[in-house]
Design goal:
Two copies of one chain form a homodimer. Chain A is an alpha/beta fold and about 450 residues long. Chain A contains 15 helices and 13 strands. The first copy, chain A, folds into two domains: about 260 residues, Luciferase-like domain (TIM Barrel, Alpha-Beta Barrel), CATH 3.20.20; about 80 residues, no CATH class. Chains A, B: This is LLM class flavin-dependent oxidoreductase.
């Protein structure tokens, strides 16, 4: 029997996930707004046989609150502007054939009719390669662009998100597969009985439908999610095909994986119906010494003030400049977020006796995701270990800057995964759903 | 001195503007949802040197209200589904180099931050070829998809539209042209003083900004409009670069043109700052007899019930099936819409002694726009006459079905316009603004 296969996402955190990455001599610092760079990355990703491209999104300048309050140090940060990602994917669809196209769109500041329509359009444009990463907005920055003084609270956001999904999925079923007749002789364009009004009326939305697009090539686009709180995991278990998550160590990743997959049966689904992809930031070189050197060079590019303010954001804004940079991590005040990235940082600093500067740079550089510094073999070893330990179904590969580290991972690590028989050597199908090995959902109205 | 030049838009009313057009043997009836057809049309349009592609939009199945009420005859209509047009343009941007990309997005059921962002993204993706057709929604069909029982009234919609424009234009000025430094050595990504918060607070919107995209290649995208009421014309005079309009006869077109251009000075603008493009539906053939025959064949494809219900919509829903189809047009009840399409139909029927069936087919086939049946010479004559009479700055070419009539107009009429020296033989510039001969707006914050 064929070995279990890794799934790989190309998560483009442009112009680079490392907060100093844009300063690297190899980096394209305008990779977030120059569409030619996007097209170049799409072609590399498709040559590398990744399952999908994946874009985050923020409907605001990230960090705008701090800048509004006068924090000029943010001018050192590059991840503040970007092309609207669903649009970018529409442009990438024209120059690719097989790779999936997933982008984030928030349920907090959108209307479900627009979201259903845009991702259905992308699925039609790409012949079945679209995916929607359903999120609730995490940033106060966005509220001020949509008429709100304050961001809605967690429970509200999740209640809205669940209903938002129901409306979108309902709209995607508006037309049965064979609803369009195109019968020129009889003059019948469609079968009236195969068009359906949704008539949704709920606490957050009232949407009649139908969607003004035929059923899409994949039946409906793939749905991805990233929630790791209880309500987030329940929503994913009910609605998602793919979960993107931040996991650092195998035991915690296994626990998350097990917990999430165990929730599926409550919604009539099986463990194969939802794929779990932790983020992974590779620093790869032919030898371990070169890889470490490369990582060190990158860390040097991160200004101390950026590193400290990243760590401070995990700690309710505590002013860390009062502590010596080469001393130990000071005690941090408790926070009330779901799964605490702060606690992960505290544990890590203790385990490796890191200084304040070191742990601050670490937190800032990884943005919560796992950084693997190594050779093609050692990185493939770790990826395989996670797969075999049921800690992951694959990984979302997030690079420190673009395009060079992405090319390196693609050309050095992927061939090693292929040699081991745990990654494809050709696309299996033509739709994202086929390549991910996921079933096509039935239309709720189909006889 | 060079002759005054015609502007030409390729207005893609897919799968065809004629309500029976999709039934024609040459027609691609899925041209509204099959993206390969869109790409084919984009390539033809760019080879033809059109200034711009232009898409209408409805965020609903058009006619959904009637279908909700049980009108099954709508299954004969094709213009009910379509790709979301801003997304379609993003895909077309990748396979074109010079042609403009204008799509409609309603101000009635959108948020200005999203609209500003999507069109700015399109301008970046296309290196300066994007345009936004700002409209207020005209169809009750949309209200039910966005939580409203009733469509807002005309005055409300225009008040919101004006403020919506102000927010979008303000967001497009968020960053000065040289705000991004990309200074790797100093670690300065942007110049903090060249980023601007909008801080808009108005009756409809509260939007802080900044937009999360740099200033666009055109300064800002082109703004098109189509309003013909007094408030619509005032809004266009204040904010639009281009106006799309329905005009049938030269005297009325001249009056509209004069009226609109006369409003410009109140907003500190000159007559060259806004271009007026009436719609034009060509039926072209080598001889006049062939062209008439072609038009007759097309009219035969329109089912009587579709023709009658189009005319009935102009007449407050009067049941026209009670009158003999081959008799004269019966008296129609008065309507209260701004510029009456009904009155145009009544005048036309009287002038040409048309039967009820003939005038109903005429109304249904043109959808309010001018149909010119003729040879390349006669059509070019009429276009030139309108240009020279200051009845138009050019035309939006709207075809009865796709792609054949569009290819015919492009290959038969455009060369005739070029021979007369009133249409370009190569693109003048690389941005839409340059090709239209419009100035680049200054950033409001620029020193």
């Amino acid at each position: 029997m064929a070995k279990r296969q890794l799934r790989l996402g190309a998560f483009f955190s442009l112009p680079g996930n490392h907060l100093g990455g844009w300063r690297h001599p190899d980096a394209s610092p305008d990779a977030n707004t120059n569409f030619n760079r996007y097209l170049e990355l799409a072609r590399i990703a498709e040559r590398g046989l990744y399952d999908t491209i994946f874009f985050r999104d923020t409907a605001a300048v990230a960090g705008a609150d701090a800048m509004f309050a006068g924090d000029r140090s943010r001018s050192r940060l590059a991840r503040i502007v970007m092309l609207e990602p669903v649009m970018a994917l529409a442009g990438m669809a024209s120059v690719t054939k097989n790779i999936g196209l997933i982008a984030t769109a928030t349920t907090t500041y959108n209307e479900p009719y627009h979201v259903a329509r845009r991702f259905a359009t992308l699925d039609h444009m790409s012949d079945g390669r679209a995916g929607w990463n359903l999120v609730t907005s995490q940033f106060e920055d966005e509220a001020a662009n949509f008429g709100l003084d304050k961001h809605p609270d967690h429970a509200d956001r999740y209640a809205r998100a669940g209903e938002f999904f129901d409306v979108v999925a309902g709209l995607w079923d508006s037309w049965e597969e064979d609803a369009f007749l195109y019968d020129k002789a009889a003059g019948e364009y469609f079968d009236f009985d195969k068009m359906h009004f949704l008539n949704h009326k709920g606490p957050h939305f009232s949407v009649r439908g139908p969607l003004n697009l035929p059923r899409t090539p994949q039946g409906r686009p793939i749905v991805a999610q990233a929630g790791s709180s209880g309500p987030g995991m329940d929503l994913a278990a009910r609605t998602a095909d793919l979960v993107f998550t931040a996991q650092i160590e195998i035991p915690e990743a296994q626990a998350f994986y097990r917990d999430l997959k165990a929730r599926l049966h409550r919604f009539g689904r099986g463990p194969g119906d939802l794929l779990v992809l932790p983020g992974l930031t590779p620093v790869v070189a032919p030898t371990m010494a070169e890889a470490r050197e490369k990582h060190e060079q990158l860390q040097e590019l991160m200004p101390d003030e950026v590193a400290l303010s990243s760590l401070a954001r995990l700690s309710g804004g505590l002013d860390l400049t009062q502590f010596p940079l080469d001393g130990p991590l000071p005690p941090l005040p408790p926070t009330n977020s779901g799964k605490s990235r702060q606690q992960l940082a505290i544990d890590l600093a203790r385990k490796h006796s890191m200084t304040l500067r070191q742990i601050a740079r670490h937190v800032a550089s990884a943005a919560g995701h796992r950084v693997i510094v190594g050779t093609p073999t050692s990185i493939a070893d770790e990826m395989q270990a996670w797969l075999e330990a049921d800690a992951a179904d694959g990984f979302n590969v997030i690079c420190n800057h673009y395009p060079v580290p992405f090319v390196e991972f693609t050309e050095m690590v992927i061939p090693e995964l292929q040699r081991r028989g745990i990654f494809r050597t050709a696309y299996e199908g033509t739709t994202l759903r086929e390549n991910l090995g996921l079933a096509t959902p039935r239309n709720r109205y189909a006889a």
